[in-house]
Amino acid sequence: MGLQLLGTKYAGSTMASLINALNPVAISLCAVPVLGEKLTRNKVVGILLAVFGVYLIVGTGGEINLPGVILSLLSVLSWALVSVFTREGLSTYDTYAVTRAAAGLAAVCNFAAFLIEHFATHTAIPLGFPAIAGILYIGIVCTGVAHIFWNQGLATLPASNCSALYPVQPLTSAVMGVIFFHEVIGLSFLAGAACIVAGVLICLLLTGRK
After folding, report:
1. Among 10, 3, 14, 146, which residue's Cα sits nearest to residue 76?
2. What's the longest Cα–Cα distance across the chain?
3. How many independent structural domains does the chain possess?
């Protein structure tokens, strides 16, 4: 998460989103040696089609910042390794135990990082109701519940199948932008959405075929 945020800071949100779209490819490739999953032709086609759909939606604007790109690539690799090793651990432990252990370790590391940043920058954090409500929402819904669902998906499906759903994130964000912020979508969004849906369906419905 830290690498992803730093990558977004330096590379920009557009470039970071495009690199983040490589997560399905990275997870599927890591699942082959770690979990022994087979990377079928249909999975490869479906994943690449979904990633291309993200490219159509997000675009390519902005200058390339090499440190930001490297940080974003490292975040993709680390998340892929986390996903496949979580999938392996779920064969022994249940979803809640794995999520609880990961959240506990993350809390310790993040609190230490908070102390370092706070005393280094002397930044005052106004803890009014909006800030507390936002922190609770991000911590409970966006992090806790989301990771429980993700880990439960990894426990149910092969890691490469779960990775095929990853490109749905920018599609969902774009749809929510239209609903809540009245953003306008164009033909590139519709084409990207079609590619994402088609890629996911190819991965999930044609899993048993080559």
Report:
1. 3
2. 58
3. 1
Distance CA 168, CA 164 (A): 8
Summarised one tens digit per residue, pLDDT across range 44-69 is 888 888 778 877 876 655 566 788 88
Tokens of 36: 């022994």
The pTM of the full predicted model, rounded to 2 decimals, is 0.69
- CA neighbor of 17 nearest in space, from 138, 156, 177, 132: 177
- Give a yes or no: residue 210 inside a domain: no
Q: Which residues of 29-60 are buried (b: 16+ CB within 10 A; e: fewer)?
A: bbbeebbebeebebbbebbebbbbbbbbbbee
d(CA 117, CA 111): 10
CB atoms within 10 A of CB 202: 21
Tokens 């774009």 -> residue = 174
Question: How crowded is residue 102: how many other Cβ atoms within 10 Å of its Cβ?
Answer: 15
The first and second tokens of residue 21, run together, are 């779209």
Encoding tokens for residue 155? 């426990």
Residue 127 lies in a domain: yes
Cα distances (Å, whole numbers) of residue 1 to 54, 71, 181: 20, 11, 26
Domain range spanning residue 76?
A: 2-205
Task: Provide the sign of the torsion angle of the four alpha carbons 47, 50, 55, 56, taken in this order.
Answer: positive
Look at residue 26 and give its three-state secondary structure.
helix
